[in-house]
Amino acid sequence: MSRLTNENNNLVTYFNSKSHISEGYRKLRTNIQFSSIDSHIKTIMVASAQSGEGKTTTISNLAVTYAQEGKKVLLIDADLRNPSLHQVFSVPNHIGLSSVLSNQYDVDEVLRDSYIENLQLFTSGPIPPNPSEMIGSNRMKNLMNDLQSKYDVIMFDTPPVLAVTDALIVSSFCDGVLLVVNSGKVKKELVKKTKAHLEHVNARILGAILNNIKTTSNSVSYYGEK
To answer: What is the DSSP string of the chain?
Structure first.
């Protein structure tokens, strides 16, 4: 079980649930829930064009808000190249998704509880030599089908879309994709290219999250915070 501390992670929704940032994540959760009338959005991938755009922080905090609502949530680190969810939640990563996909461990042996009620973690495990092949394997598809019967919400962290094909593969078995964009870092052309790549594999883009927006000193939140 993980032991979270405020100093080594960015889980504002856990450590400061009344902040305007936490309220923003809850509003995002609500928007996702109401984005589809005829179908339930259960599997969600958070994507970005390139690294360093806040994708992992976004998906971690969003997962916490679902868990706080009483949903049984599984957060999967499907980035088998540069994983980081284990760092956010301060848990070991010597076994995980790659261990299950390579038939070394069963799922129940690698799933980890967190100190956040209703939230379980499926870390990446050791970095394999063939990440794309593992993610696109039939064993991965069967694993996801099995997990969907056990959780209310399953969320995926993945490598950047433009870097490798892994994220596009994961999007094929997700109900929706959220695109995280760092307004102070990524170029508009790269965002358009990322969107085109996702649409090419028929990924359902739920919307975009704009990070690193500069606000004025007069900006005031609902809670009266600047």
So the answer is: -----TTS---HHHH-TTSHHHHHHHHHHHHHHTS-SSS---EEEEEESSTTSSHHHHHHHHHHHHHHTT--EEEEE--SSS--HHHHTT---SSSHHHHHTTSS-HHHH-EE-SSTTEEEE---SPPS-HHHHHTSHHHHHHHHHHHTT-SEEEEE---TTT-SHHHHHHTT-SEEEEEEETTTS-HHHHHHHHHHHHHTT--EEEEEEES----TT---TTS--
Angle at 25 between CA 224 and CA 41, to 5 degrees: 150
* Closest alpha carbon to 155 in 82, 206, 200: 206
Report residue 176 as tokens.
């929706």
pTM score, whole prediction: 0.89
pLDDT (tens digit, 0 to 9) for every residue of the chain, 226 residues total?
A: 555 655 546 899 999 988 998 999 999 999 888 877 667 899 999 999 998 888 999 999 999 999 999 999 999 999 999 999 999 999 999 999 999 999 999 999 999 999 899 999 999 999 999 999 999 999 999 999 999 999 999 999 999 999 999 999 999 989 999 999 987 778 889 999 999 999 999 999 999 998 776 655 444 443 333 3
Nearest CA to 171 among 140, 208, 202? 202
Q: In which residue are the tokens 């094929």 written? A: 172
